[in-house]
Amino acid sequence: MIVLAAENPVKPHLAELALGLVAFLVLLYVLARFVVPRFEALFAARADKIEGGIEKADQAQAAAAEVLERFRAQLADARAEAARIREEARAEGERERAALRAEAQAESGRMIARGEAELAGQRSRIAAELRPELGRMAVELAERILGEPVADETRRRGSVDRFLAELDRR
User: Fold this and answer.
1) Which residues does 76 contact at the CB level (< 8 Å), separation at least 6?
2) What is the pLDDT of residue 125?
3) pTM of the model
4) Integer Cα distance of 40 and 47 in angstroms
5) First to last CA, the chain
6) Among 163, 140, 160, 162, residue whose Cα is nearest residue 150
7) Do the Cβ atoms of 141 and 159 come closer than 8 Å?
8) 159 or 32: whose pLDDT is higher?
9) How many CB atoms lie within 10 A of CB 160?
10) Which of 22, 63, 71, 118 shows a CA-CA span of 20 to 30 A to 100?
11) Contacts of 5 (CB under 8 A, 6+ apart)
């Protein structure tokens, strides 16, 4: 082999440069024809999947917000119902209390009336029991004051009866 002294080792041969260029163009054609479409299809599928996931997440979030809103509405309805029930129970309690108070007052009135009637009956009975004795004591007192016996029985009874009637009127 003959080595030329004027040849530069850094400078490539034109044949190698042409072969490298042809190989690069073939590689570029294969990549553009087969690999790039597959990558683009994978990227598109992945982007669709991500967008679908985002849409599903948005839909799930919207559904959750709707469920939350319905729950809040139901909770507000339940609170309103509980307040209504409490108010009804309070009103019923007030009615019961008023009815019991009226019943107690009526019973108290009946007991007072019964007591007064019993008291009046006892007063009449006691007065009837004490009337003869009071008459006898009045006659004795009059006899002691006068120092002589009171004349007749009929007159004594009339005076005593008048005195007792006058006491009853007071």
Assistant:
1) none
2) 85
3) 0.41
4) 10
5) 172
6) 140
7) no
8) 32
9) 20
10) 118
11) none
139 CB-contact burial (10 Å; exposed 0-12 / middle 13-18 / buried 19+): middle
Is the pLDDT reported for residue 143 higher than 80?
no
Residue whose token pair is 């479409």: 37
List pLDDT tens digits, range 56-79: 889 999 999 999 999 999 999 999
Please state, in angstroms and as integers, the Cα–Cα distance from residue 147 to each residue in 132, 143, 163, following that order.
Answer: 22, 5, 20
Q: Which residue has the tokens 């209504």?
A: 84
Alpha helices in the chain (DSSP H): 14-30, 36-146, 153-169
d(CA 104, CA 98): 10
Token output for 121:
């009956």
C-alpha–C-alpha distance, residues 39 and 47, integer Å: 12
* Tokens of residue 91, six digits: 């009103």
Task: Give the closest residue to 124 by CA, choosing from 163, 158, 168.
Answer: 168
Rg (Cα) of the chain, in Å, rounded? Answer: 64
